[in-house]
Amino acid sequence: MADADPLRDELLTAYAAPDRRFHGIRHLREVLEHLVELASEGTPFDPEPVTLAAWFHDSVYDGERDSEERAAAWAREALPDHVSEETVEEVARLVLLTETHQPEAGDKNGAALCDADLAILADSASRYGDYVASVRAEFGHLEDAEFTEGRTHLIEKLLDRPTIFHTAHGRAVWEAAARTNLADELAQLQGR
Questions:
Q1: C-alpha to C-alpha distance for 105 and 118, rounded to whole angstroms
Q2: Residue by residue, what is the 3-state secondary structure of the chain?
Q3: Contact 158, 111 (CB under 8 A)
Q4: What is the radius of gyration, based on Cα positions, of the chain?
Q5: CATH number listed for the domain at residues 5-189
Q6: Where are the domains of the chain?
Q7: pLDDT, tens digit, for every residue of 30-87?
Q8: How far apart are CA 23 and CA 33, in angstroms?
């Protein structure tokens, strides 16, 4: 994208906000690295909108339920000077998809972005522990019981899915480890 340095800097500033514990620059970098990994393993997706959606997907993150909507709105406002209208709309759609991480069958762009975003679930036990602690810190305004209830619900929904990941690479490489990490966290939350 030509002349996009100011926009890149705005996005990096948003990700570097002091209240970001997990959804910061490290997470952005990891999502972008996972997209490179998916591409290198032959996962088909359109790199321009998916990469831009990765940049925008957590550009607004404050624990409120409409963060994805506000991030998509920012993409719709900021991108028209840089890419086609079609690309802008695809970026916004993909950003909104990160609220559920459930792309439709055949949605190659959605599958790639969702898998790259969720790949943290399959990281080492140590990194996963850091992720969980960082997410808890971002939701520090919630009482422990409320956070535990919400987190338990999220984990159970993920574990109830036939697969967490939507790409062949994600299922082959990340699925088992993610299920182990999530099951271990769920057991801790339930005091087992």
A1: 18
A2: CCCCHHHHHHHHHHHCCCCCCCCCHHHHHHHHHHHHHHHHCCCCCCHHHHHHHHHHHCCCCCCCCCHHHHHHHHHHHHCCCCCCHHHHHHHHHHHHHCCCCCCCCCCHHHHHHHHHHHHHHHCCHHHHHHHHHHHHHHCCCCCHHHHHHHHHHHHHHHHHCCCCCCCHHHHHHHHHHHHHHHHHHHHHHCCC
A3: no
A4: 16
A5: 1.10.3210.10
A6: 5-189
A7: 999 999 999 999 999 999 999 999 999 999 987 677 899 999 999 999 999 999 999 9
A8: 15
User: What is the C-alpha to C-alpha distance for residues 103 and 132, in angstroms, rounded to an integer?
Assistant: 24
Tokens in use for 155? 């984990």
Question: What are the pLDDT digits (tens) for 134-157?
Answer: 999 998 888 999 999 999 999 999
pTM over 0.70: yes
Q: What is the Cβ-side half-sphere exposure of residue 159, based on CA atoms within 13 angstroms?
A: 16
Nearest-10 Cα torsion for 49, 54, 55, 61: 130
Q: Do 72 and 96 touch, CB atoms closer than 8 A? A: yes
